[in-house]
């Protein structure tokens, strides 16, 4: 039975992922209805980690398809093992025999989508950064997302006995097609509110004092309100906390440690200059 949003939130938190009510509801409905879950949001807000934590919660294998420009169906679905087929032909010729059927399952190289379909217990399939793939690849995905099946001309149609849990992520580097979105349940992951970000820091950075966590979260929230080229995500705030704590343990006062560790929070020269221009207001009570 699919856990409700409240139970799901507790299960995710038990694995170190602190989801808000909206995200828990979206995950619950995706699981209940058997729909792919399409997650968008700023980089670093935890989109990819949703699939990883669902794998840990359910005990299912995590299968990841990393998208990139030029990704084709062979790399995502399956390929035939041509060297192995050629070896079969040569061995048969050397023995004066027929090579036989070269399109059997033993010659099939299973890529992420086929592996997810054939997983006996089911699987969590992460299709990461779908916006980086070409629009042609999106069109190819429609059959898979609609019916959880794959057609292999030489072998026929392979259907999932247990449909996989599918999570797609996008950073919105381009707009996705409506046909893809219609097959998914959509959710936008926003930056966390202060209380949730403090909970994430407490779980991710053991030993971080509560007062230091509060000051760091105040600073991060202020930083995100600046007109930056790239606003820092949760991953960056966690790394910033770890770096600042290491410097503080070496003797730096906490506000000084935060400033010295800025390279873990901000990854652009112009953004760094902007932060330094606003350092007084950003770090006064951090």
Walk me through this protein's architecture:
This protein has 286 residues and is an alpha/beta fold. The chain has two domains: 5-71 and 110-189, Rossmann fold (3-Layer(aba) Sandwich); 194-283. The chain has helices spanning 5-14, 21-33, 47-58, 73-76, 82-94, 112-118, 135-147, 178-182, 194-204, 210-224, 234-249, 254-260, 269-277, 279-283; strands at residues 37-41, 61-66, 78-80, 108-110, 123-128, 149-152, 156-159, 165-170, 185-189. A five-stranded parallel β-sheet has the order 2-5-8-1-9, sandwiched between helices. The chain has a two-stranded antiparallel ribbon with strand order 3-4. A hairpin with a 3-residue loop joins strand 6 and strand 7. Helix 9 crosses helix 11 (234-249). The mean pLDDT is 90. It comes from Nonomuraea jiangxiensis. InterPro entries: AAA+_ATPase, ATPase_dyneun-rel_AAA, CbbQ/NirQ/NorQ/GpvN, P-loop_NTPase. This is MoxR-like ATPase.
Give the name of the CATH architecture of the largest domain. Answer: 3-Layer(aba) Sandwich
Report the mean per-residue pLDDT as an integer.
Answer: 90
Query: CATH first level of the largest domain: which class?
Result: Alpha Beta
Question: Which strand order does the major sheet show?
Answer: 2-5-8-1-9
Can you identify the CATH superfamily of the largest domain? Answer: P-loop containing nucleotide triphosphate hydrolases
Large-scale geometry: elongated
Query: What is the succession of H and E elements?
Result: HHEHEHEHEHEHEEEHEHHHHHH
Low-confidence stretches: none
Number of domains: 2
The helix count comes to 14
Strand content: 5-15%
Helical fraction equals 40-55%
Structural class: alpha/beta
Largest sheet: 5 strands, parallel
Number of beta-strand segments: 9
- Estimated radius of gyration: 24 Å
What's the CATH topology label of the largest domain?
A: Rossmann fold
Terminal Cα span: 45 Å
């Amino acid at each position: 039975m699919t856990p409700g949003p409240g139970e799901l939130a507790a299960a995710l938190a038990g694995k170190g992922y602190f989801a808000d009510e909206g995200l828990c509801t979206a995950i619950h409905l995706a699981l209940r209805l058997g729909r792919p879950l399409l997650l968008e949001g700023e980089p670093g807000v935890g989109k990819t980690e949703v699939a990883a934590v669902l794998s840990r919660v359910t005990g299912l294998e995590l299968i990841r398809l990393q998208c990139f420009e030029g990704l084709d169906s062979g790399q995502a679905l399956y390929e035939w093992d041509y060297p192995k087929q050629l070896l079969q032909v040569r061995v048969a010729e050397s023995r004066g025999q027929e090579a036989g059927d070269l399109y059997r399952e033993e010659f099939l190289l299973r890529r992420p989508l086929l592996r997810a379909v054939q997983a006996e217990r089911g699987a969590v399939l992460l299709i990461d950064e779908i916006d980086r793939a070409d629009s042609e690849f999106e069109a190819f995905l429609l059959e898979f997302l609609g019916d959880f099946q794959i057609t292999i001309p030489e072998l026929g149609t392979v259907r999932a006995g247990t449909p996989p849990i599918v999570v797609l992520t996008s950073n919105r580097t381009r707009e996705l097609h409506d046909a893809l979105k219609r097959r998914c349940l959509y959710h936008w992951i926003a930056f966390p509110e202060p209380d949730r970000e403090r909970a994430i820091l407490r779980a991710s950075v053991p030993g971080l004092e509560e007062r230091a966590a509060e000051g760091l979260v105040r600073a991060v929230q202020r930083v995100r309100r600046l007109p930056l080229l790239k606003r820092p995500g949760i991953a960056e705030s966690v790394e910033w906390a770890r770096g600042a704590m290491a410097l503080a343990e070496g003797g730096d006062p906490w506000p000084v440690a935060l400033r010295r560790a800025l390279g873990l929070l901000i990854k652009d020269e112009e953004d760094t200059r902007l932060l330094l221009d606003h350092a007084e207001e950003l770090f006064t009570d951090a």
